[in-house]
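fwd from M.: "can u put these together and see what the complex looks like"

so here's what she sent:
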Amino acid sequence: MKLNDEEQDILAGKSGPVALRALQHQLKVGEFFGAEDFVPVTQAHVMADTESLGEAGVRWLEQLAASEGRPRVRVPTITDPRGTDFAKATFLGQTRTMLDLERRAISAFVKLGVTMTDTCINYQTIQAPTRNEHVAFGDTGVVIYSNSVCGARSNFEGGPSALAAGLTGRTPRYGFHLPAQRRATLHVRVDLVPASLNEWGALGATIGRMAGNYWAVPAIEGIGQAPLSDQLKHFGAAMASFGSVALFHLAGLTPEAGRLNDVAPADLPSHRITRADIDGLRDSYRSDGPVDVVVFSAPQLSLFELRDLADLCEGRRFAVPLLAVTSPQVKPDSDRMGYTARIEGAGGTVLSGMCFYQSYAREIAEANNWRRLATNSAKLVNILGGYGYQPILASMEQCVDAAISGKLA
Amino acid sequence: MTGSAKLFRARQAMGDVVRGVALVAYDGFSARYDLDRVRGIFSRSDHKLAGQSYVGKILVLDTAKGGVASAWMLNEMMSRGVAPLGLVFNSVNPILVQGAALAGLPMLAGFDQDITAAIPHGSEVEVDPSIRTLTVLK
């Protein structure tokens, strides 16, 4: 890779050992993908729940933070959800070991100058990137939304790479930093209008499965009206989860696809999606039996989602646990507007700064005997199968009803 | 495929030479979605390798799936000795590459054919990233 003077200085150790290690890591990744050079980034977003890091990852962070020269990030660097809401850890059945690991990770991040936002909806709550802004974002849902809806430029940056980008202020220029990589590779015609967030998720999931890998870019036609941010949040998060997709275009709606042929060559392979496809996806997760827990999470809920949930909780009483997970930025507003009190008044629990699947999902399932889980998040049903759950995809209304009756109608 | 009938050349490579038994399937891979990382087995029930141990094996799979957690998890798995020996994929996403870079896990990707159809499940193979080759030994 071509290195400018500043990068050569970092590589010579003039910016300290941490920046050197960060750049060396970035060089390995950049050379693997044939990047020609680095591109400056303006923001980084680090996924680093301690279930993923483990003791090894936390020790790695602590070593970085304790290195000589007081290493600090060079650009605003924020965090994805943590592995707990400390105030609700006992309710979740999390152990002291898990919480100690979390505290150590947080301490190391703070020493490195990282801003602990603990959110996967930073594009709704912190600062949405702008068109053509090069960023280094983690969390696939954040990347796909930023690339597709905002027109920003990011690859999936896992925790170590996003932190490296924060520490060096740059990232290797490959993948979705390159205009040519952002052209569509498949065309999808949608013959339905999703009616709810779980249907937006199911549609995203179906397209994600169809696209199949990170380098596929779907150009989608048939979405008539401008979707809402929460709808595209579930749509993109599910597409990224099911297909590892990082960018989609909605013809006539998203910034790079004013017209379909702005992004899509004429001879693309073409697919059609009907209501039967998304119903089929939902039905593939359907199973009979009691529901052990209801979870709204992945991505964290916006204030509007919490408002809708609070309305559904009015005058109800839950027989099984209902968890609603949001960001530390939204939670105070939810408290202030009375949404939290209404949800918890019905027997639910509002959690903040974590995400369900990033919070030791296997261990909390064992601690609480949670196996059959109802959610309106297509992303969550995709992830939790590997953690031993039997997840079921349903609407927010159906999930709330299930929390009352203990089963899905 | 070049040279010998048992040698396959990759376009992308990273890490040191390793030899081991190949665990082969036309399926995806995500450390968070697919694995029980405590027991060292594929745990997603609909994964083609469900129930099989991946520890010390060279995984020959189609593509990287899922989220960003693998970027940390490969390193965490290595630290406990519950990791694969090497990764060989038709295509990879940045997360798997970033994770392999942090963990020091050898990796090959990008072949002229479906590598999961070319390598017999259970065969002994050598991954040599320095010359970007995968060789079937027996």
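replying to her w this: The mean pLDDT of chain B is 93.
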